[in-house]
Amino acid sequence: MINDELPIPKYAQIAEHLRAKVEELTKEGKDKFLSDDELIKMFEVSRMTIRQAVQLLVKEGLLKRIQGKGTFIVRKDKLQTDIAKLDTFFQGWYLEKSFHVKLLSRGPVPCPEGVDAKLGVEPGEEVYQVKRLRLSEGIPVVIDNRYLLKKYGEQITDEEYVHYSFSHLFFNKFNMSLTEGEIEIEAVLASEEVSEILGISAGSPILYRSVDLRAKKCCVLTGTSSYRGDMYKYKSVLRLE
């Protein structure tokens, strides 16, 4: 199971196997996870290595340790967004009481290639970048990276970025309603930066979503979101007209 020739630490390799074991036991309806002694015997490594691997899954919110009782699987339904409804998609997440939002960074940056055409600015012109982290019950779930025109971004305060959706902010500060949007979702592997922020292993699967939001047919907001694949899902209702 463990490949000593790989540059990946042993505990990280073991953690990958443990994630699969968590999924397997979850499907079987079990709550109790394997003991450290069982894992030491299974992987033939030191107790310290096993503790490092298990602690990584504890940090990811997949396992929990209860002193004197053992290690248990954290049972939690995936958070979800209904992508068929604009009002839910634009505003729903900040109304969820389970979400806590942390502002990672904000400020003017040279417009990245591809974003300039969407926002209608010149290549290299300054736009406003906002990065926010969404947490559920203290666990990092989503990284939002957004670009908007500098004249809008610099008028929004730190407190407003933390407590309100862009839909709310555009409507209440600039009298603009976000009326339509376009999204793309794909499965990718987490980069080192994303994995560090979300508390997962580099290369773990995540949901990567790009979004363009418009007001009066003009794109006023664009960017991406990186979701932990083990904690988030999308749904949509299909109807035959």
TrEMBL record:
Has UniProt tagged this entry with the keyword Cell wall biogenesis/degradation? no
* InterPro entries to which the protein is assigned, alphabetical: Bact_HTH_transcr_reg, Chorismate_lyase_/UTRA_dom_sf, Tscrpt_reg_HTH_GntR, UTRA, WH-like_DNA-bd_sf, WH_DNA-bd_sf
Against SUPFAM superfamilies, the record matches this protein to: Chorismate lyase-like, Winged helix' DNA-binding domain
| Domain HTH gntR-type positions | 8-76
Q: What SMART domains does the record point to? A: HTH_GNTR, UTRA
**One Pfam short name:** UTRA
Q: Which UniProt keywords apply?
A: DNA-binding, Transcription, Transcription regulation
The signal peptide stretch is none
This chain's protein is named: GntR family transcriptional regulator
| Species per Swiss-Prot/TrEMBL record | Brevibacillus brevis (Bacillus brevis)
